[in-house]
Amino acid sequence: MWLFLAALAVLFAAALLVVIVVRLQSDGWPEELPALPTTLWISTGILLASAVSMQWALVAIRSGRHRSCVAALLTTLLLAIVFLVLQTMAWFEWTSSLDQAGVLIATNQLAQSTFLVLTGLHAAHIIGGLIPLGLICWYAIIRAYTSQDHVAIRDTAMYWHFLDVVWILLMIFMFIMI
């Protein structure tokens, strides 16, 4: 699992590096971009809440509280879906605010692409995380996990917390760079 997370860390670091290079070498980067959409800040809260519920699931299964684990996993799944819906809304909101700000077409596309690539890359990994999250929800419902045997929940929690940390770093990066 650690090797997988390290590979993902390299992927996200590379994406950030590309954005930095493009931003620094661009002659036409707009000076006055609209603020990041409020929806992004709300989705950040939702994602952090999903981190709490995922950790709650792990703690619950470790202490043998099966029903609490199932409730926490289902909560995490629901929050992940809400996060993705909010991300989609943020994409439309920011794209629309760029158009309303009258940013020139060429610079608009560069800034918009940067925003969409960073948030889209993260969203793709959230979507990918829905698969194991859905599976562990199902297996938890049919009582396939015990306090001694819950490696899939632990590994999914590690992945989920990794995505939370990446999102916080992306938000800081976008706040500074975009």
Structure commentary:
The chain is mainly α and 178 residues long. The protein has one domain: Up-down Bundle (Four Helix Bundle (Hemerythrin (Met), subunit A)). Helices cover 84% and strands 0% of the residues. Helix 4 packs antiparallel against helix 5. The chain starts with a helix and ends with a helix.
> What low-confidence regions span 5 or more consecutive residues with pLDDT below 50?
none
Q: Superfamily at the CATH H level?
A: Cytochrome c oxidase, subunit III, four-helix bundle
DSSP strand tally: 0
Strand residues, percent: under 5%
The CATH topology corresponds to Four Helix Bundle (Hemerythrin (Met), subunit A)
Using the CA coordinates, give the radius of gyration: 18 Å
Mean pLDDT: 90
Number of helices: 5
**What CATH architecture label applies?**
Up-down Bundle
- Overall SS class: mainly alpha
General shape: elongated
Profile the largest sheet: none
* CATH hierarchy class name: Mainly Alpha
Helix content: over 70%
- Straight-line N-to-C gap: 32 Å
Compressed to H and E, one letter per element, the order equals HHHHH
